[in-house]
């Protein structure tokens, strides 16, 4: 069957939105005084864009040093250590075992541990502040309202910090990173989400490394998007997924290679760099809930009995390049969604490839 007569969006995961553009020159074109100048802008050896500053209200071009303004840094180029806000939302990383063996978050524990980590006190490391939420959650309990809270926290502290690290549980981390990537529009600073498979309290935990590397990246490099750092890779937030529930290498990005790989050094994929934002940060906080996800399986019974009047959207996980059954029950259900003007997003169940509706008759 063809979906062109209905409201469908085909997601082609794996497409990079930036293509190695000259960030400073591109940003210069969006500021009239820079665009009309003879000098223009370029990435200096200290990692900043020549003449470009940000005063909390917008970009300014000052070929001479501008007092009271923050420099604009070139993406994926090391610069002087800045200030990082660590936002602790909950998750395994800060949990401890209760007498019955179950893990629970312990208010104040992880914040104290981070503030006393010797690794974060070393010369050349960014300054940091830990903001612990009053109600720490298991990420399985995360809701769109939690995403709104995180986005507002970043917005409220945006001008006071150079980068942000969100400590989060792993179960819904990829959902949070995807949501925030769409909520934080015109993002020009680094936002990294991380956590751990093992609690910080465990001697062999992966928590310390994930925290240290995330803070280092957020405070010494401009990576103007939402990303996930885990183990050795920095992944685009809306291309990452949890791939292993019991391994330290818990996250992957099957349709897009890492933004950076951290080994002895840092290997950035600079051709994946996003374009410079042309406006100030704006935050989308209106979120729809009641989204229905349907994974197609052989023999799926009729969906017509489902009450769709309270559904705000449907995600269809279809076969291959977006193929689905052509039986009357399924077609009638699609027509019902169309009649109710309920938007539908089509994705593939396959790990790699793209959605291409209409390739097959089915």
TrEMBL record:
Enzyme Commission number(s): 3.5.1.1
Give the residue spans that cross the bilayer: none
Q: What high-level taxonomic lineage is stated for the organism?
A: Eukaryota, Sar, Alveolata, Perkinsozoa, Perkinsea
Q: Name the family the entry cites.
A: Belongs to the asparaginase 1 family.
Indicate what this protein is called per its UniProt record. Answer: asparaginase
Its source organism is Perkinsus olseni (Perkinsus atlanticus)
Ranges for domain Asparaginase/glutaminase C-terminal come to: 309-361
A GO molecular-function annotation: asparaginase activity
UniProt catalytic activity? L-asparagine + H2O = L-aspartate + NH4(+)
Q: Where is the active site?
A: 92 (o-isoaspartyl threonine intermediate)
């Amino acid at each position: 069957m063809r979906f062109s007569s209905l409201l469908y969006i085909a997601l082609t995961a794996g497409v990079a939105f930036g293509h190695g553009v000259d960030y400073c020159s591109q940003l210069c074109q969006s500021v009239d005084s820079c665009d009309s100048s003879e000098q223009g802008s370029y990435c200096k050896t200290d990692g900043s864009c020549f003449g470009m500053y940000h005063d909390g209200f917008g970009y300014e071009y000052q070929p001479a040093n501008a007092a009271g303004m923050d420099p604009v840094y070139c993406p994926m180029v090391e610069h002087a250590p800045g200030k990082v806000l660590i936002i602790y939302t909950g998750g395994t990383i800060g949990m401890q075992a209760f007498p019955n063996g179950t893990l629970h978050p312990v208010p104040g524990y992880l914040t104290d541990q981070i503030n006393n980590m010797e690794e974060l006190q070393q010369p050349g490391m960014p300054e940091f502040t830990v903001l612990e939420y009053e109600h720490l959650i298991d990420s399985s309990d995360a809701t769109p309202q939690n995403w709104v809270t995180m986005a507002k926290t970043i917005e409220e502290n945006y001008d006071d910090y150079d980068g942000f690290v969100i400590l989060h549980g792993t179960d819904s981390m990829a959902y949070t990173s995807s949501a925030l990537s769409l909520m934080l529009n015109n993002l020009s600073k680094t936002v990294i989400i991380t956590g751990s498979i093992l609690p910080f309290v465990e001697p062999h935990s992966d928590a310390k490394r994930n925290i240290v590397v995330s803070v280092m990246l957020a405070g010494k490099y401009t990576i103007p998007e939402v990303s996930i750092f885990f183990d050795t890779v920095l992944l685009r937030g809306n291309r990452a997924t949890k791939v292993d529930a019991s391994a330290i290498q818990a996250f992957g990005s099957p349709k897009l290679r890492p933004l950076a790989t951290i080994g002895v050094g840092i290997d950035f994929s600079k051709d994946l760099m996003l374009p410079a934002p042309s406006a100030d940060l704006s935050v989308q906080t209106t979120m729809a809930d009641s989204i229905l996800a349907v994974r197609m399986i052989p023999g799926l019974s009729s969906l017509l009995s489902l009450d769709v009047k309270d559904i705000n959207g449907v995600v269809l996980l279809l076969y291959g390049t977006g193929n689905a059954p052509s039986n009357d029950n399924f077609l009638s259900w699609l027509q019902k969604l169309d009649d109710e003007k309920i938007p539908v997003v089509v994705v593939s169940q396959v790990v790699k490839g793209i959605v291409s509706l209409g390739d097959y008759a089915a």
